[in-house]
Design a protein that fits this description.
five-stranded antiparallel β-sheet; 17 strands; alpha/beta; 10 helices; seven-stranded mixed β-sheet; globular
Length: 299
């Protein structure tokens, strides 16, 4: 579903030095979006299409919220936009909603969930926790980051879960260590969960799955980091799930963690690293040239 309009940025917030939140006007999309789904965004008319998971949506206000980390050229181009500017294009919602969205509310309400959010994975975890909390399910969230300055959406997340646990690699805030360590500590102390959800870096989701296996805890992971085109046409997000080929964008992005071939997925993720570096270098060179022209009064 594509809306033929420009999408005005009504709020821009810098969550950290490298992570930016945008709230964008998109009334039709806001009414249709569900937790687990994603959008395709183009900053400018000639920009690359970027798949971004939905962080929040407000049907009454007619807006959707996305969170972007500035890594490569396309994300830098998008994050350079300011409040009041318009994003050229937003397509969505795409992908399958989270499995619990398709289950009877009464059934989901009686369950206990634990969500492991690693870094930018906090953004897609938020609408899931918000929905589960709103229907009365028990939700604990373990939010991980390298250091305190990279912890995002802490206040918002605390308002949509029963217990929020912060983990930092360096111990600058909360539990010192990985989200998997906190999960094992909680379950080891007698905490019971029916389902775990892990969203974040690929390596984090792999080890979250290994930790969950120790306790026979069902776990869902999101393979959104593999997506490029977002429509199943490019094949970049191809992965092996339960011995069969699947595409993160059309068959997911969420899958049973026990069935995902993480090693194969991580190899595929590494294929595009050199191309990303080349595109980023070209973007920085073009930006430097534009800045130089502005300084000397040309153009």
């Amino acid at each position: 579903m594509k809306q033929q309009q420009m999408y005005r940025i009504i709020r821009k917030e810098q969550l950290s030095t490298v992570i930016t939140l945008f709230e964008v006007e998109a009334p039709l999309l806001a009414r249709a979006a569900k937790p687990g789904q994603f959008l395709i965004v183009r900053a400018l008319e000639d920009s690359e299409r970027i798949p971004l998971t939905v962080c929040d949506f407000n049907p009454e206000k007619g807006s959707v919220t996305i969170v972007i980390q500035t890594i490569g050229a396309s994300s830098k181009e998008l994050c350079a936009l300011e409040q009041g500017d318009c994003v050229c294009d937003v397509v969505g919602p795409l992908g399958r909603p989270s499995d619990f969205m398709e289950q009877p509310v009464e059934e989901v309400r009686g369950k206990s969930f634990v969500s492991l959010a690693g870094g930018l994975g906090t953004a897609p975890v938020y609408p899931q926790a918000k929905y589960l909390h709103s229907i009365g399910a028990k939700v604990d969230v373990i939010l991980g980051a390298k250091t305190e300055s990279l912890v995002i959406l802490e206040k918002e997340m605390a308002g949509v879960c029963d217990n929020l646990y912060i983990c930092t690699d360096d111990g600058s805030k909360g539990f010192k260590g990985l989200v998997t360590g906190k999960l094992e500590e909680l379950i080891g102390s007698g905490r019971h969960y029916d389902t775990a959800v892990a969203i974040g870096p690929m390596i984090m989701m792999k080890f979250a799955t290994l930790s969950a296996r120790k306790f026979n805890l069902p776990i869902i992971v999101s393979m959104n980091t593999l997506m490029v085109d977002g429509t199943g046409m490019c094949g970049a997000c191809r992965l092996t799930v339960d011995g069969q080929t699947r595409f993160a964008c059309v068959d997911g992005p969420e899958f049973d963690g026990y069935k995902v071939d993480f090693d194969g997925a991580m190899r595929r993720l590494g294929i595009y690293r050199s191309k990303e570096m080349e595109a980023n270098e070209a973007y920085e060179q073009a930006k430097a040239a534009r800045d130089h022209k502005c300084r000397i009064g040309i153009g």
